[in-house]
């Protein structure tokens, strides 16, 4: 998920094109991060120091780690730590960005610093992002204000994120949600829950994205010959089932209704509803959560 968040940051700043990012993502599958990128990521060396070690390697027949220790940038324990992390997949993005000539080590070092600063990412949140810590990422990147029922929506969204990571795709990102009283959609799969209070949870997207999403979920379950509606409905059942189990542990009991699919309409709820954009490699899905049952209008 680090790839999606950092890659999107570079796109939004016009530092990479979609074509360049696509090429980088393809190359990542065959790349392992080298010590320079590892040392920058760990904060042990600057990009300028990494470039200096590389310049020394052109004059001295020594490995990067040996020279970094020789110049006092690393000690033996730090070098051992970096080597142990060399297979980390998220670092492959940084390595390919340098190898492909998009950025120098120094530029990459500054960009990572700016990414954390401009996105208000703490060191703790950055570690969560690198390690795909979904609970911490939802807390760090999802701002549900001013929604009064944000804890409910957070729990429902976290269940969606975990199941998407488990069954659909591990490399995706989500953005800040929108709060309003209406949401128009092309396709919507949704379910309602009633009991101590009423809730509605749904997924909105276009036909092509729904087909990819449902196909991956069916394949993940090892189920063939299931149509898109049933597959999306089952994903929603699994997601909301886990969500309701967590509520039940808090003494809140809700009854889950069968999912329904509709198209080319809008949700309307005077109390407000929240939509959270989720960007997958094959397109965008919006996660919808509403306290109270919204009306479906033309």
UniProtKB/TrEMBL annotation:
SUPFAM superfamilies recorded: CheC-like, EspE N-terminal domain-like
Residue intervals of the Chemotaxis phosphatase CheX-like domain: 192-267
Coiled coil: none
Nucleotide-binding among keywords: no
Gene3D superfamilies reported in the protein's UniProt record: CheC-like
TM regions (residue ranges): none
InterPro entries: CheC-like_sf, CheX-like_dom, T2SS_E_N_sf
A biological process term (GO) from this entry: chemotaxis
Alphabetic keyword roster: Chemotaxis
Pfam families noted in UniProt: CheX
The UniProt record lists the keyword Transferase: no
Official protein name in the record: Chemotaxis phosphatase CheX-like domain-containing protein
Organism: Heliomicrobium gestii
Taxonomic placement: Bacteria, Bacillati, Bacillota, Clostridia, Eubacteriales
